[in-house]
Write a structure and sequence with these properties.
Largest sheet: none
Oligomer: single chain
Number of strands: 0
Length: 183
């Protein structure tokens, strides 16, 4: 039996019990002192239930926040592998090298493995699109825009909402290249 089913059954039994107490107090007890005592018992039971529910809800919310934080940390580690790869490629390009190092390839594989575990279906789809456009023939300006779009998707996955006013890829570029990208 599931946890929720058990809670519903216990809540139903308790509700029936409390309604039964109310009916008993109103129709079957003749003395006001006895009725007041029963309603006092009902009030104490309701106060105890409210306290238990408050603590339980608070604990569940704290547990959910902790879980969300752990997932966010795992995603950060995964995305750090992509950023490491991106900066390695950028650094190599600035130095005039067009080959990927073993470290760069390793970081990319770690990113892909982490993306499989921690990335949303939407982000995985966006990565596959990004990978296709990067490997296809095209202008460097278009590739930078595609990379910028994927970076925005990563940031969206992390909970940030970015406007399209600023190009995230401009961080990697020299000032002259930034002007060319904005054109």
């Amino acid at each position: 039996m599931g946890k929720n089913t058990l809670q519903y059954i216990l809540t139903s039994i308790l509700s029936i019990f409390l309604v039964g107490l109310c009916i008993w107090a109103l129709w079957f007890l003749k003395e006001a002192d006895d009725q007041i005592a029963v309603f006092g018992i009902i009030a104490v039971i309701l106060a105890a239930i409210t306290s238990v529910l408050t603590v339980s809800i608070s604990n569940n919310k704290a547990r959910q926040r902790e879980y969300d934080l752990l997932i966010l940390k795992e995603k950060q580690e995964v995305f750090d592998h992509f950023y490491e790869t991106l900066f390695e490629i950028s650094n190599s390009t600035l130095k005039g090298k067009n080959t990927l190092t073993n470290k760069t390839m390793s970081e990319m594989m770690l990113f892909k493995r982490g993306l499989m575990n921690w990335g949303s279906e939407h982000l995985i789809g966006k990565y596959l699109e990004y990978e296709e456009t990067i490997s296809a023939q095209g202008s460097n300006q278009q590739k930078l825009k595609d990379a910028d779009e994927f970076l925005r998707e990563i940031r969206k996955e992390m909970g940030f909402e970015d406007s399209k006013k600023l190009s995230l890829m401009s961080i990697l570029l020299k000032p002259e290249a930034r002007k060319e990208l904005n054109m």
